[in-house]
Design brief:
Elements lengths: L3 E3 L13 E6 L4 E6 L17 E5 L2 H11 L4 E7 L3 H13 L3 E5 L6 E6 L5 E5 L12 H9 L1 E6 L3 H13 L2 E5 L11 H6 L2 E5 L6 H11 L4 E5 L5 E5 L2 E5 L14 H14 L4 H15 L12 H14 L4
Parallel strand pairs: 1-6, 2-5, 2-9, 3-7, 5-6, 9-10, 10-11, 11-12
Antiparallel strand pairs: 3-4, 7-8, 12-13, 13-14
Helix pairs in contact: 1-7, 3-4, 7-8, 8-9
Length: 322
């Protein structure tokens, strides 16, 4: 199947076992992008945005799914979507990119956010939390069927995905998650951190990244923990050893950091699922993350497999700092 399966109408068809490389769970929604003159934005009665204000489909799960698909992995996306214009944008994006989507009806509406993007590419995201509730659930039969048909599941940190963790672990499928800007203390993130085999997070809010990484590894089941450090590269913890992953020079001027972490995760997973050692998976991640920083937030694009492998081989052959 390529296309959409709607659990409400029953339209579409389910795939059989072994037909997916990755099931992406959650993280579907739309963003409204506003380029602002600076961040933080000083108070004013109004601002004139000459570049325009644009709304497009694409939140963390959408970007991971796009990244995986662009790298040639068979990808399916499962999440709750509203019967609204925002949900239509998400459905259209998946149809255009040929990514199968299972949409569970969400009466509260499709997730949405406003991203304020500064001249240096940094962003401030404002999330509409009215479009989701702590007791939202993904149907367990659908969840089990899709997880059982997948080699791996990448889990967003939404409430429906939190409720799904026990069922996912029961299937025996490997899991990854991105904790984004977790501070290492908020208890909400801990079930995700401790259930996943691969854990990604940003150093943005971490007072002591290494301490948090080691706590995740000690208290959970993670084979590897990766902290992205923006222009400084990343940190990789595996088998008790912490490795610094050098940064990669973006192939063009940096425009926007939105989606860089999702691109990193998708490329790392590509390496992992194609049998590459963890240090090469991390290299793939830094290459893809750097590429994402050159793409405007108003667009949904991802590095493809040919570009990723060529750039990684070039960097390795140069034997120069990445």
């Amino acid at each position: 199947m390529s296309g959409e399966f709607d659990v409400r109408t029953g339209r579409g068809s389910a795939r059989r076992p072994e037909e997916f490389d990755v099931l992406v769970l959650g993280g579907a929604g739309v963003d409204t992008i506003v380029y602002v003159p600076e961040l933080p934005l000083p108070y004013a009665d109004s601002y004139h945005i000459d570049s325009g204000i644009r709304t497009r489909a694409g939140q963390t799960g959408d970007f991971v799914a796009l990244g995986l698909s662009a790298l040639g992995l068979r990808t399916h996306h499962l999440d709750l979507l509203g019967d609204d214009p925002e949900g239509d944008l998400v459905r259209a994006l998946h149809r255009e990119r040929g990514i199968p989507l299972t949409a569970v009806p969400q009466p509260a509406g499709t997730k949405r956010a406003v991203n304020l993007v500064g001249p240096d590419g940094r962003r401030l995201s404002l999330y509409d939390t009215s479009r989701g509730h702590a007791d939202d659930r993904l149907p367990e039969p659908v969840l089990r069927e899709l997880a059982g048909a997948s080699r791996h599941v990448h889990v967003s940190i939404s409430h429906p995905c939190a409720h799904a963790l026990p069922a996912l672990r029961a299937t025996g499928v490997t899991l990854s998650t991105d904790l984004h800007d977790w501070d290492g203390e908020n208890p909400y993130h801990e079930p995700f951190a401790h259930a996943a085999d691969l854990v990604f997070l940003s150093a943005t809010a971490l007072a002591d990244p290494e301490r948090t990484m080691r706590r995740i590894a000690e208290r959970g089941r993670a084979r590897a923990v990766v902290v992205t450090v923006g222009a400084e590269g990343a940190l990789l913890l595996a088998d008790g050893t912490l490795t610094r992953v050098p940064p990669v020079m973006p192939p063009a001027p940096v425009i926007d950091s939105n989606g860089a972490g999702d691109a990193f995760a998708a490329a790392f997973l590509y390496g992992h699922l194609t049998g590459e050692p963890l240090h090469r998976c991390a290299l793939y991640g830094t290459v893809a993350g750097a590429h994402a920083c050159t793409i405007p937030s108003t667009e949904t694009d991802a590095i493809d497999r040919e570009q990723l492998l060529a750039r990684a081989e070039e960097l390795e052959a140069s034997q120069l700092p990445l």
